[in-house]
Amino acid sequence: MPPKCETHPIRTSEDVVRVRQVARAWATELKLSLVEQTKLVTATSELARNTLEHGGGGEMTIEFVENGIKRGVKLTFTDHGKGIADINLALRDGYTTGSGMGLGLSGSKRLVSEFDIKSEPGHGTTVSIVRWK
Amino acid sequence: MSSFHEVVQKQESVILSGWLSEVATTTRRADLMSDSQFKQQATELLRLFTEASQTSGHVSSEAFSGARDFLKDLARSRMNDGYTAAETAMFVLSLKQPVANALRDAYKNDPARLVDEIWTAGTVLDKLAMLTVDAAIEFREQVITRQQEEMLELSTPVVKLWDGILALPLIGTLDSARTQVVMESLLSTIVETNSRVAIIDITGVPTVDTLVAQHLIKTITAARLMGADCYLSGIRPAIAQTIVHLGIDLADITTKAKLSDAFALALTRLGKTVVSLKSIKTGRQEKAVDNFAQTKDT
Amino acid sequence: MDRIPILKVGDCLLVTIQVDMHDRLAMTLQEDLTNQIARHASKGVLIDISSLEIVDSFIGRMLANIASMSRVLDAQTVLTGMQPAVAITLVELGMTLPGIRTALNVERGLELLREHIEQQQGSVDLDEDDAAEV
Predict the structure, then answer these.
(1) For the complex shown, is ipTM > 0.95?
(2) pLDDT greater at residue A102 or residue A67
(3) Is the dihedral of CA C112, C117, C122, C128 positive or negative?
(4) What is the rounded (10 degree) CA torsion for B124, B125, B128, B134?
(5) Rounded to a whole number, what is the distance in Å from the CA of A31 to chain B's nearest CA?
(6) If you average pLDDT over residues A49-70, what whole number do you get?
(7) Is C87 close to B225, i.e. CB distance below 8 A?
(8) DSSP one-letter code for C130
(9) Most CB atoms within 10 A, among B16, B71, C30, C133?
(10) Which domains does chain B have, with CATH numbers?
(11) Measured between CA atoms, how close is B170 to chain C, in angstroms?
């Protein structure tokens, strides 16, 4: 039986690769379809990278969740960086604070079943996503 | 710690026969199962129940894992045989009466204790019965899901029109789930058959709303990313109106009114053309006559 | 593996991305390719991603950058072998990679490059048996 909950550090770009692989393993365990797996791992990559690059590093927690007969996997990305001043702005397609197309946050939202973000300037950001089977 | 399990263990055979006669009057369904098989299941369940209760009173504990697995399998096979979920649950619940009878005899001098033990044993059996209901429902849902998938597969065939040219004739209304299956099916067929052109024909689709249009556009964009062109054909005037009316932008998507037009375009795209056999024969005759002329590249 | 190998096939450069790249590796590839295009005056770049199971916005941007930089250096880029699940995810992400030519596989990709180069300069050197790592 897989562990109920795991936490992984996101401090280097190798960590981003590692958490991708962790997400893939858990998605396979949950028997998600290939497309659903790909979407989840891609969203993980986006959010992990955000945690590293905009949050100054942090961690990812992964766990299985249940809602009645529904089973799913939940990933939570936490950092203690600058935080996001205007969340709605950040969630808009094309918004970016640096070079690039800024699709990480808004794009990820479309790849998962549930998406939640909490951020306070100066206190960091927490993003959690759920993919139900 | 309750000790109903001690009583149950001592009176196992009495309880078993009490149980079997209890069920005989209600949910036996002798038409679905033989006597010996029924007795076998009852004996096994009683044994698992007694054994597990020695260690724990919690159905979700490790001690009851054997009982849980047995009940899951039991529920599935019963559903398969034709029992209803209620009949399967009643099978477990009707164990309560004979157990209560045995407890009454054991604690006849201690009513308070009797009530406690009956309640505890009853709760365990209630929870076990609930498990069978859950398993029965899960079984039904799996059947439904499988049937849905089969239906979807049947209604979204991808056909090969020519080497490198696929067609996807869509029939009926498109909902979100179906369009997604369609999309994935088309894209994987493109890879499998190495097709550079796919034609999505919606002649058989009565209405197209914004969501469906978005799905189609996404499919076409994804195909393009993979290296295949996608054409949309069979757009009836009514649908064309709806698309414009909804403000859907089909900007760089190639659309054709008829599938045949789309096919002709696909051939051109692949650098092919259709010639009549007569013209080829004539061509050969000419070359046979003119032996020393340069062969023109066709 | 700390560097992704680049093969020279006549007038073109061929890259096969097979590993789950971390960001540094991706940036190194971008640099390497640009340098090699300039060095060999390559006319075409073929990037095969048939083994890539994940393409996120960072990798997508890298591919778009490579295509832009190649264009500046007068080379055409073709992306081949994108897996269906990856394509579906990229579209959902909103990343459609406009301006990048794509092909189903390496064979078709080289054909496209051949046609393009022939158009440009009338002749093309693209003998696949002469492929060599740069």
Answers:
(1) no
(2) A67
(3) negative
(4) -120
(5) 15
(6) 90
(7) yes
(8) G
(9) B71
(10) 4-145 (1.10.490.10), 159-273 (3.30.750.24)
(11) 20
